[in-house]
């Protein structure tokens, strides 16, 4: 099992560890040209504002706009560097800081509200023109055969061949197609060879120094493509995907259009982003504070477990963590198992040996509180895929598609699958799906939502009172009175009031 995880990790490391000369020069050149143009426009706009309206409002507005531009981005490599696509983002990056400066200057007792607005207007106009110049320079470099990225197209059906033909015929895109990857496809006449099968995609990316992978449709099965793309997590290449029924796809800011075929860029793995480092800081701080706060609860549970199960209140078990590495997980003992029984037995919730204390701490998940020590040590995170035992990991890796990819991040005390009810005797397929969905959609905000959902599930909910339907009163038949009946029926004597 360890060999399986190491081979998966090594394929990514080989893809990512090798220096791609084209990738570094092309991408960094694109960003450097755009950012240099922004700085020139910003300095020129601030200088013009300072000459006309004074240095204080111009400098304040310039610093605020610079911060906004750094946060806004829009300097990453693109097929289509179009100014009109960037105008809304540029307007927002200038308008918001300018308005904030305009509000702050009177509060601070400084003059120049009109100067801030004037500076913002100058900067915005110059930014638009600077983008025009930068993108014209980039297109000229691409037409000269410079700054071209090497691309592999996955899928040799209609959409893939259209992409390849358009990219080769239009140098403005800045892409060189090195070949196609598909199953059971012959050589593609006039377009390029079939480099190999989808399963060999990670090795082909490394072999051909590819910086782009464009996933279209072909003879391959979808799950093979998903596995191959996940193997590229450690690679520096960018992955674009042609959406299903792309003819109905709405072209937007996150989509690039090549010959009428939309390409959606997959987000780079979040666990390689700077914010991922903050996750570990949060784990350490929160777990340390939580251990202090719940220490009385830990003591009470420890005494109760000791009285019910005897010596050995902490249950230690080997689990599989990040990159398939084993670690020792801590839990409160809920019952005393035979040697090795816990390693291969799936669930003990219905075991007759469970006492009242063991049943209670399992039902309320209080038995998992000692895992806060695992979080503090770095074996686990507060939020992540739940750790499993080696015996079951080996079986699930062989039978459950995508299961081994859930170990790309640290395992967690709670997780996306757990808060969606996938724990205990539930579908392993669904657990693996939710765990991989969490990994590929990770953000600090998602972690916070999962933590809140976990707390909500731990709070006992009062069962709603049964509301019984109120029966309608029986409907009695109304007798039909005929004239004869009315004559024969005795009348009630008249009563005086």
From TrEMBL:
Residues 279-458 form the Bacterial sugar transferase domain. Residues 1-23 are annotated as: Disordered. SUPFAM superfamilies: NAD(P)-binding Rossmann-fold domains. NCBIfam families: EPS_sugtrans. It holds the Pfam family CoA_binding_3. It comes from Pseudonocardia thermophila. PANTHER family: COLANIC BIOSYNTHESIS UDP-GLUCOSE LIPID CARRIER TRANSFERASE, UNDECAPRENYL-PHOSPHATE N-ACETYLGALACTOSAMINYL 1-PHOSPHATE TRANSFERASE-RELATED. It is a multi-pass membrane protein. GO terms for molecular function: phosphotransferase activity, for other substituted phosphate groups. Keywords: Membrane, Transferase, Transmembrane, Transmembrane helix. One of its GO terms (cellular component) is membrane. Belongs to the bacterial sugar transferase family. This is Exopolysaccharide biosynthesis polyprenyl glycosylphosphotransferase. Gene3D superfamilies: NAD(P)-binding Rossmann-like Domain. InterPro entries: Bact_transf (IPR003362), EPS_sugar_tfrase (IPR017475), NAD(P)-bd_dom_sf (IPR036291). Signal peptide: none annotated. It is found in: Membrane. The chain crosses the membrane at residues 58-77, 89-108, 114-138, 281-305.
């Amino acid at each position: 099992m360890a060999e399986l995880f190491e081979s998966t990790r090594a394929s990514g490391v080989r893809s990512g560890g090798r220096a791609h000369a084209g990738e570094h020069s092309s991408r960094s050149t694109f960003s450097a040209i755009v950012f240099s143009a922004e700085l020139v426009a910003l300095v020129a706009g601030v200088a013009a504002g300072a000459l006309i309206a004074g240095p204080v409002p111009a400098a304040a507005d310039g610093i605020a706009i610079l911060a906004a531009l750094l946060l806004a981005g829009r300097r990453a490599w693109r097929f289509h560097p179009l100014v009109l696509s960037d105008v809304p983002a540029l307007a927002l990056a200038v308008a918001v800081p300018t308005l904030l400066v305009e509000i702050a200057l009177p509060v601070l007792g400084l003059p120049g509200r009109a100067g801030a607005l004037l500076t913002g207007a100058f900067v915005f106009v110059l930014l638009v023109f600077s983008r025009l110049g930068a993108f014209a320079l980039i297109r000229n470099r691409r037409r000269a055969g410079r700054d071209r990225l090497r691309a592999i197209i996955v899928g040799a059906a209609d959409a893939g061949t259209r992409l390849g033909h358009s990219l080769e015929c239009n140098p403005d895109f800045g892409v060189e197609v090195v070949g196609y990857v598909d199953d059971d496809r012959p050589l593609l006449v006039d377009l390029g060879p079939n480099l190999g099968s989808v399963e060999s995609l990670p090795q082909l990316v490394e072999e051909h120094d590819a910086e782009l992978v464009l996933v279209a449709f072909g003879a391959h099965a979808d799950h093979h493509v998903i596995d191959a793309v996940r193997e590229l997590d450690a690679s520096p290449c960018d992955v674009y995907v042609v959406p299903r029924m792309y003819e109905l796809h709405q072209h937007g800011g996150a989509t690039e259009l090549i010959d009428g075929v939309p390409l959606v860029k997959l987000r780079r793995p979040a666990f390689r982003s700077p914010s991922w480092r903050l996750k570990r800081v949060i784990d350490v701080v929160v777990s340390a504070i939580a251990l202090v706060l719940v220490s009385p609860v830990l003591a009470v549970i420890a005494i109760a477990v000791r009285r019910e199960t005897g010596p050995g209140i902490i249950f230690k078990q080997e689990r599989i963590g990040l990159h398939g590495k084993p670690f020792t997980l801590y839990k409160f003992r809920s019952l005393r198992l035979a040697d090795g029984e816990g390693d291969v037995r799936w669930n003990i919730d219905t075991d007759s040996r469970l006492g009242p204390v063991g049943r209670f701490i399992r039902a309320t998940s209080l038995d998992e509180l000692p895992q806060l020590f695992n979080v503090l040590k770095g074996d686990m995170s507060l939020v992540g895929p739940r750790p499993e035992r080696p015996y079951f990991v080996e079986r699930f890796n062989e039978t459950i598609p995508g299961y081994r990819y859930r170990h790309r991040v640290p395992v967690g005390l709670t997780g996306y699958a757990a808060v969606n009810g996938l724990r205990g005797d539930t579908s392993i397929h669904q657990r693996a799906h939710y765990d991989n969905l969490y990994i590929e959609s990770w953000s600090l905000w998602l972690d916070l939502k999962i933590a809140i959902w976990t707390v909500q599930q731990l709070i006992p909910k009062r069962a709603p009172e049964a509301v019984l339907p109120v029966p309608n009163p029986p409907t009695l038949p109304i007798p039909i009175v005929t004239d004869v009946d009315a004559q024969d029926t005795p009348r009630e004597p008249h009563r005086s009031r």
